[in-house]
Batch of 4 targets.
Target 1
Amino acid sequence: DPDVRRDMEVALNKLVPGEWTKDGTFLHTMEGEDDMPGHVKSSLMGPSLNIPIRNGRLALGTWQGIYLNEHRNQGGWGGGHARSIIITLQGQS
């Protein structure tokens, strides 16, 4: 459901409004106005994810999905910051 992605972005922007950089709530702006909101949002989401695999397939529930989030408007992918994804598999074959 494409609405989930939009709704998650709206919710995170309400939890950590970008205006906090402009109104003095956040002082850290070394990499732009979206820098500190991006730090807080990524802290809320966490840096990693564990996904169970069963019979060679992702073992997700019917309504579960995996989203990769970029919390920067000016930075991030395509904005001058390099991003990488590291996948580590553990378990038995």
Note: The radius of gyration is 16 Å.
Target 2
Amino acid sequence: DCLFYFGRGCAMIAYALWAMCRRTPVSMQRWLRFCPAVYVLPEALQRCYTVSTGHMPLLEVRNLVWVPAALVLYVVLRPQAIHSLRGRLRRWMEARGAMRAA
């Protein structure tokens, strides 16, 4: 199990390094946006396989890792979700800075 996490980490780092070698910043940004999906997708696929084969029930605590994995994949694959999260984070930081300045 430890080798699985190590392999996922190595795959994500290799993907990020590959994406940083793109020619234009826009291309690099587009490829780097999928970097979290490279880390999360194998875990989600492994959990789906174990549940579908009947080895573990879906709602067992250690199988609930698919919930954050699904959220990460949703955010990564939907640019509108990323823009919305960035806007909310920016507004929160501006309000926090205004409160500290006051």
Note: Residues 79-101 form the longest helix (23 residues).
Target 3
Amino acid sequence: LEGPTRDRIVVIRNEHMVEDWNSIERLMGGRNNIVSGLNFPHDNSHEKNETEKFLSDGSRRALCQASCNDIYVYKSILRRGKNLKPEDVEESLAELRNICPKEADMVDREG
């Protein structure tokens, strides 16, 4: 990310879209729970069968390793999100840790 690393940004995580949208609304002085009960599509492609969802452990590790820089940026974005509470950041890091444990726990370059 360019700019000073102390700059704060607002963040909407795909997996927590409704909660994050509402937290930004509150941050801007708006109403609580302006968005509720909505189903935001997380995947607008065709429905997948089980064989399309499978990724071998070796392939997953290779993908995580190849995504190391992207994961670094993702973690930085989470930590700079002024609408995210520390437990929100930890929840997303735990979700990342389930997929890419080594990369999720790597020490960030700036800290």
Note: DSSP finds six helices and no strands in the chain.
Target 4
Amino acid sequence: VLATLFVPALGWVAFNILSPLFNQLDRMSEMKDDAAPSVAGAVGLGAAASLLMAQNAEAATEISQLAASDNRAGVLATLFVPALGWVAFNILSPLFNQLDRMSEMKDEAEP
């Protein structure tokens, strides 16, 4: 049940992380003429990603066991704070940019 609460936030975080990653990989592939190092790099990244997922699964299992044995709200809040902070960071930056543009347009419109 708790996992369904994390899916949207973690999906958004993954979306924001994967886009720059793919851009960097595209730039790296444009710089290299060899296809073999790109394949080796992709295999290495795949192996690193699988290890990262395995560690995340172990950490999630450990946290769920802790949450099952300790029902305090503080433990559950620590699960939400990093993901929600990242989502807020990604939302607030465009918001402030839009507010700045609106303020500049207002200043330009005044005589």
Note: The longest helix spans residues 73-109.
